[in-house]
Design goal:
single chain; alpha+beta; D-Maltodextrin-Binding Protein, domain 2; seven-stranded mixed β-sheet; three-stranded antiparallel β-sheet; 44% helix; 17% strand; globular
């Protein structure tokens, strides 16, 4: 691998590429290879077709993307970023952005992200997830919030309007539940894990006014935490079979196979539900933001600038240029053309005529509306996975009935959190 070199600013090339005046005041002309550590994504694979375009734009740079599955990517990311730093760009996600940012392993993105790439165009929910301690750390490649997706035919037959409040949603789930006909009111995630049952529980917790901590004191014994858990467990009475110990795959699979009347899930569900190759209900669905007061569960994965491999500002600018190009409107339009729904992140693309042509005019508006209520529900702290996974175990026991004391389970989590917090001080 050739070392990355930086030369003088090259505005003309960028102007020719975009056909407009640019503001790359600090963008350096680059050469050598920009190394990227990522997990497989169709949108990244698509970039390989346009390497020559980036080389021309940058004034001579190439890029190499090394792919690992999610768990291995996270482990190698952490090991590399904290030691030798071979990679100029890291693929990070909502679960580890706090660790990478607070450890100084990645640089504040907007210091080096060219302004012409219009970071403000990203979905507001994605922007929230990419922000920690008041600064942006990555450019989104995938992510989302939550949508309420429902069977229009079943609601029409029952004379039910799409619910806009949680009380209406619970009542509709009860009425639509017809297990004797193989139809269930909803589907939830029961499988333990910070990204499984806890992920779907958190919008209830935050919607009812819950907070993980009151200052530095754990606050899981609050009325909001109890009410959230009671509501979540009540809805499980009407949840599709297999979901009590299942996760995303089981919940989404139950909906797309026609077993579920209404579902609140992460937005990539819609792309699957609309795909006639994988969905039996593609022509029967409607979608709205989650019913109030639920918050959308914001998550996101994206590209960040490593600090060890990029030893000076010029190198960071080259990494920022690559990230800007990789997540640009132009490349997102290419992902749209390829039908890569789960890898669309920009408001301009999701509200474009082409998006409406492919997915219908209502979906773009629903995604824009849900972006406004999308929130960072999880605890933005390097120890979040430990805390979330612990609650996931207790919550799974409550769902399956091996534990019945909600308040006792939350008190146990409180004690665990106190110990966790004391070890980090």
């Amino acid at each position: 691998m050739k070392p990355m070199k930086t030369l003088v600013s090259s505005i003309a090339i960028a102007c020719a590429f975009f056909g407009a005046a640019t503001s790359f005041a600090a963008a350096a002309e680059c050469s050598g290879t920009i190394r990227v550590l990522a997990q497989p994504r169709d949108g990244l694979t698509l970039l390989e077709k346009y390497k020559d375009e980036f080389t021309k734009l940058s004034g001579g740079a190439d890029f190499q993307i090394d792919y690992l599955n999610e768990n291995d990517r996270r482990a190698k990311n952490k090991a590399d970023a904290s030691t030798i730093g071979k990679y100029n760009v890291y693929y990070i996600d909502e679960a580890n952005v706090a660790l990478f940012a607070s450890s100084g392993w990645v640089a504040p993105l907007l210091d080096y992200y060219p302004k012409d790439y219009d970071y403000a165009d990203f979905d507001p929910g994605r922007q929230k997830v990419a922000t920690f301690d008041g600064k942006v750390w990555f450019a989104p490649l995938t992510g989302g919030g939550d949508l309420m997706v429902y069977r229009k035919d079943l609601l029409d037959a029952a004379g039910i309007q799409p619910p806009k409040t949680l009380d209406e949603y619970v009542a509709a789930v009860e009425k639509l539940n017809q297990p004797d006909k193989g139809i269930y009111g909803t589907a939830l995630r029961g499988q333990r894990g910070s990204g499984a049952n806890v992920w779907r529980w958190m919008p209830f917790f935050k919607g009812f006014g819950g907070n993980w901590f009151d200052g530095k004191t754990p606050a899981f014994d609050s009325d909001a935490a109890v009410k959230a858990t009671e509501t979540y467990l009540k809805l499980f009475k009407y949840s599709a079979p297999g979901s009590q110990t299942g996760g995303w795959d089981e919940a989404v699979g139950a909906f797309t196979s026609g077993q579920v009347a209404m579902l609140i899930e992460s937005t990539p569900l819609v792309g699957m539900a609309l795909d006639k190759k994988s969905s039996q209900v593609a022509d029967k669905i409607g979608y709205l933001p989650p019913p109030t007061p639920l918050t959308g569960g914001g998550y996101g994965h994206g590209l960040a600038i490593g600090t060890k491999a990029n030893k000076d500002d010029a190198a960071k600018q080259c990494a920022g240029l690559f990230i800007g190009w990789a997540t640009s409107k132009e490349n997102e339009q290419r992902r749209l053309a390829e039908g890569q729904f789960s890898e669309l992140n920009r408001t301009s693309v999701m509200t474009s005529p082409k998006f409406a042509e492919m997915y219908g005019p209502a979906l773009g508006q629903a995604l824009a509306d849900t972006g406004k209520v999308t929130a960072v529900n999880f605890w933005q702290n390097p120890q979040w996975p430990d805390l979330g996974d612990r609650w996931g175990i207790i919550l799974e026991e409550l769902i399956t009935g091996s534990r019945t004391d909600i308040k006792g389970g939350l008190d146990e989590l409180n004690d665990f959190a106190k110990d966790l917090a004391s070890r980090s001080q």
